[in-house]
Amino acid sequence: MTTVDDGQAVDDGPTTWHRAAHPVATGDAGLPWMGDDVADFVLPGHDGNIGNVERNSLHGGVIAGFLETAAAQHVEQLVGAAVETASFSTEFVREARVDDLRARSTVVRRGRRFVVARVEAWQDGPPLAVAIGHGIFRVVDPT
């Protein structure tokens, strides 16, 4: 996993993504920045991420990996230390087109050793979720 500063892109081949620096200023996610407990992410659409060619939809593994990576990056930046995924689950709500996928990570509970985060992905606005992820992350070097 590559750690990035706000607004920098990470190019991991077909799953290039970037974290919105400040959505209010950049308009990147079209949503207001709400503080440290919330972060917005974007997975640009790419033909290499197709799961079903006939339906032109994203592969579920790409979506799940994006959600977990987004939540882990958010938690790492929030706690200022490396984290390990203790548990992560993804619920697929509806099919996702090969188009930009946006996600919002929210910290649900923050402890000294573990952080619980929820991340929701959408394409046509937050009310129309594509997938929802829940993760528990262990802080490797708590400060």
Features:
143 residues; Thiol Ester Dehydrase, Chain A; disordered N terminus
Structure description:
The two termini are 21 Å apart. The N terminus is likely disordered. The chain is elongated. With 143 residues, the chain is α+β, with helices and mostly antiparallel strands. Helices cover 17% and strands 39% of the residues. Strand 1 and strand 2 form a beta hairpin. The strands form 2 sheets. A 7-stranded antiparallel beta sheet has the order 1-2-3-7-8-9-6, covered by helices on one side. A two-stranded antiparallel sheet has the order 4-5. It has a single domain, classed as Hotdog Thioesterase (Thiol Ester Dehydrase, Chain A, Roll). The protein contains 2 helices and 9 strands; from the N terminus they run E-E-H-E-E-E-H-E-E-E-E.
Would you identify the regions where 5 or more consecutive residues have pLDDT less than 50? 1-34
Distance between the termini: 21 Å
Beta strand count: 9
Mean pLDDT: 79
| Strand content bin | 35-45%
Q: At the third CATH level, what is the topology name?
A: Thiol Ester Dehydrase, Chain A
Number of separate helices: 2
What structural category arises from helix and sheet content?
A: alpha+beta
